[in-house]
Amino acid sequence: MTETVATGSKGAKRGKRGLTVERVFTTEGVHPYDEVNWEKRDVVMTNWRDGSINFEQRGVEFPQFWSVNATNIVTSKYFRGAVGSPQREHSLRQLIDRVVLTYVRSGTENGYFGTAKDAEIFEHELTWMLLHQVFSFNSPVWFNVGTTSKQQVSACFILAVDDNMDSILNWYKEEGLIFKGGSGAGLNLSRIRSSKELLSSGGTASGPVSFMRGADASAGTIKSGGATRRAAKMVVLDVDHPDIEEFIATKAREEEKIKVLRDAGFDMDLSGADIHSVQYQNANNSVRVNDEFMRAVESGAEFGLRARLTGEVIETTDAKKLFRSMAQAAWECADPGVQYDSTINDWHTCPESGRITASNPCSEYMHLDNSSCNLASLNLLKFLGEDGMFDAELFVRAVEFVITAMDISICFADFPTEPIGDTTRKFRQLGIGYANLGALLMATGHAYDSDGGRALAAAITSLMTGTSYRRSAELAGVVGAYEGYARNAEAHQRVMRKHAAANDAIRTMHANDVKIRDLATREWQRGIEIGGKNGWRNAQASVLAPTGTIGFMMDCDTTGIEPDFSLVKFKKLVGGGSMQIVNQTVPRALKSLGYQDEQIEAIVEYIAEHGHVVDAPGLRPEHYEVFDCAVGERSIKPMGHVRMMAAVQPFISGAISKTVNMPESATVADVEEIYFQGWKLGLKALAIYRDNCKVGQPLSTAKKEAKAATPEPEKVVEYKPVRKRLPKKRPSQTLSFTVGGAEGYLHAGSYPDDGLGEIFVKLGKQGSTLAGVMDAFSMSISVGLQYGIPLEFYVSKFSNLRFEPAGMTDDPDIRIATSVLDYLFRRLALDYLPYEKRAQLGIFTAEERTAQVESGYGSDAGQEESVDLETLRSTVDASPRPVEQQPSPESAHSTAELMDLHLGKAADAPLCMTCGTKMRPAGSCYACEGCGATSGCS
Q1: Rounded to an integer, what distance in angstroms lies between the CA atom of residue 924 and that of residue 936?
Q2: Is 263 or 78 the better-scoring residue by pLDDT?
Q3: Mean pLDDT lowest for which of 252-256, 361-365, 476-480, 827-831?
Q4: Same domain for 164 and 269?
Q5: 641 vs 453: CA distance, rounded Å
Q6: What is the mean pLDDT of residues 604-632?
């Protein structure tokens, strides 16, 4: 792709050069769609708990080589139009065309292409790459581009708030608008005066932490209604803010509250009925530390906290003690993370236009306030040849196409607020990145935590960003440099030289690294040379995002910069059902390491049975490290993750979305060391998560034992529950039911004010053991209800229990039950709980489910943003199946659950808020293999 003189480009100035586009992946005269075999598939997404259908679209068209999982996610999340209507997209061709043709049309109108032929080639190349899962745009592109909705293409936003009430209230409003669209935002509250400073009226300021409460409540309400996915937010405070200690302790204090409430019987799990009573749970918190503070920590010196308006020191604190409090809070509840302010701004291309003060929720996008960044990620494994060599030249060509398309999107994009739109158009921040790094390293025989692995990752990242900036400089010669470049030219060139110098310092270990690093060196040199003449089109070029949903769309084994999650995977099958497989990267890695086919087969069989490689037949112990994963028998050490981040950070314009997972046995001192080494190694941001540190972690290995404390006798206050007995005459109802062929009766008695007070269940013959057990069970539940235990607590505990009898029921609202108790408590929920509480538990009547489908998918294409994907569930066989004891690999519903079964303990991850499947890490977020939902941006 080179430059030429534009002759027919609409919108191009006369004599202005346009791009000459050459074919790379495609063949002249053959459309990319004609090169693949297509097939029709049925997408039926159901609730794996009860088998109810939540999404169904039959006869969708996809290439044969696309997995069932990728097909399901793309169909349910990205296809636009009302389900069942002629306007509904039903083919991957329609989806790709909707996006690609919009990009090409905008590129033509804005003078990017030299001729109409160049535009056509660009269209075919982009189509081929998307069709063959070489790269993907971030989710907002697939949601919005080419529809009647606003053409929002960005997933990452940074807001600004000043020290006045108008700005603070505007913050609430802007954040809500961004959440409504399913995206996330971050901001820095350090401009707000502390609670230790005076107002002009003479009173004392409230401080930023007090205003966080309102924003947190607003986010908790709005984000649960996101049309496309759950939103996320980031709150940052500078380390020299006088309220920094209060900020550090906010979530740790709330975690203590959660424990107390949990021990008192309240439901405090992630989606529990009572979790909404605690504060600050909807944001990631980070402290902005600078070099001055970190040097004070290193030397044990005092550090000054400064007034917001005057900048004068109003209080001093022990830097080591403050740093320890950050580590202590993170050890207790995973917050706050740290952002290294001096490092961030040292790599800032536009310092004359303002400092970088905050990040997006996942910490990968960092630039000016009131700005946004659209993302795209390349699938690295697509560039690995059968000979084990990374095709660096092909990678360069692919980066050229992707970065060009990303820049074109800013020409037609819409933004949630005018300030964000104005800043983004002036600086044109982009975020190209990659996925499948962990799989690539394993396939080439590199351990994730090794010098060779880090060298390969660094070289590829340098080549990607160097090529992106070179292409950006060429685009500046075609359509002009970004508006803010003239003011920041010297700084931008300085940062380019810093990147190039870091590239020269890469210590190569393998022929792959040498080839890639040498090509990257040439790209940086060309980019600096061209940029010196033209300037650059983009203030930023690259980030490393979580790539959750789009990673599944590209059928990637690993997300972002992450290592492989586990060696065994949970694979969905055509027609429903699933099976356990060993990662296809494993045999490829074994072949790269020199093992023969017979040895590879034996090792793979061993891994399938045990979930790890320790003592695998014929596998040399020195090769164990190649197969180390995020979880499992040989999990990567925390510093291994930090060192990998440090290896690639000098070649990223923004930062890296990644959480460093630490074992439950880690100490506060270990957290301190991680945060300190992050600074020493030149990272821009870092967050940790210690296993089992949060109460709202549904499937963790064990709960921490509460610290015993012996209060003084005179201070003991004993609270006892009081039993509220039912009156002798009370309203009641009796229901006959059938579950899996077993007949029974449920009698429910209520208080006069409609609260359930007792139940009696008749099941089995009078005098039988089963009848006696049900009588005792009924009495215990009835007494519990009368002592004030909420019905929703029982519903959450007993619904979805699995044992015989189970199967079909005669109840139109609950067609399938996994046990008698599952049916009884879901029936009681329908009869006695209000809709809001049932919605939290995922229990609806047949009429309500029908209304949800009609309202969610019965709208026209222009209203598609309102589709409620919260109702989507994991894909399993839609037909009812008898419930029986199964081998453990078959009872999992995700890779994370599969690993739990192999290891005999739970991997540390939350349940998906959309479908209930256990998620797995994706950067600093989590991603669901069942429905593609993420907890952040991708």
Answers
A1: 8
A2: 78
A3: 252-256
A4: yes
A5: 12
A6: 93
Rounded-to-integer distance, Cα 242 and Cα 532, Å: 43
Alpha-carbon span 565 to 568, nearest angstrom: 9
Single-letter residue type at 738: T
Please say which residue of 844, 873, 904 terminates a domain: 844
**What is the spatial distance between Cα 659 and Cα 545, in angstroms, rounded to a whole number?**
12
pLDDT at 911 > cutoff 70: no
CA–CA gap between residue 697 and residue 6 (Å, rounded)? 58
Nearest to 933 by CA among 155, 437, 231: 231
Q: What is the pLDDT of residue 418?
A: 96
Instruction: Give the tokens for residue 248.
Output: 């550090």
Whether 165 and 276 share a structural domain? yes
Say if residue 100's pLDDT is above 90: yes
Helices (H), 535-684: 548-553, 585-592, 597-610, 638-648, 668-680
Question: What values do phi and psi take at 477, rounded to 5?
Answer: -75, -20
User: For residue 116, how many other CB atoms are within 10 A of its CB?
Assistant: 12
The pLDDT assigned to 889 comes to 40
For residue 382, what is the DSSP state? G
One domain for residues 163 and 283: yes
Task: Kindly state the average pLDDT of the residues 238-267.
Answer: 87
Q: Which residues of 243-257 are buried (b: 16+ CB within 10 A; e: fewer)?
A: bbbbbbbbbbbbbee
CA distance 931 to 938: 14
User: Residue length, the chain?
Assistant: 938
Tens-digit pLDDT profile for residues 843-892? 888 888 777 766 654 444 333 333 333 333 333 333 333 433 334 444 56
**Contact (Cβ atoms closer than 8 angstroms) between residue 585 and residue 595:** no
Q: Is the CB of residue 429 less than 8 Å from the CB of residue 375?
A: no
Indicate if the pLDDT at residue 249 is higher than 60: yes
Task: Tell me which amino acid residue 133 is.
Answer: Q
pLDDT at 706: 37
d(CA 801, CA 822): 6
- The residues that are catalytic are 360, 362, 364
Domain of residue 114: give its range. Answer: 1-132
Q: Which has the closest alpha carbon to 342: 592, 684, 56, 66?
A: 684
Instruction: Let me know whether 172 and 297 are in one domain.
Output: yes
Given a contact cutoff of 8 angstroms between Cβ atoms, the answer to whether 326 and 338 are in contact is: yes
The torsion angles phi and psi of 17, rounded to 5 degrees, stand at -80, 145
Helix, strand or coil for residue 824?
Answer: helix
> What tokens does 869 get?
């994907």
| Final residue of a structural domain among 302, 325, 353 | 353
- 210 and 336 within one domain: yes
For strands 156-158 and 184-188, give the pairing. Answer: parallel
Claim to verify: residue 52 and residue 165 sit in the same structural domain:
no
CA atoms of 249 and 272, how far apart (whole Å): 23
The C-alpha atoms of residue 868 and residue 864 are separated, in whole angstroms, by 9
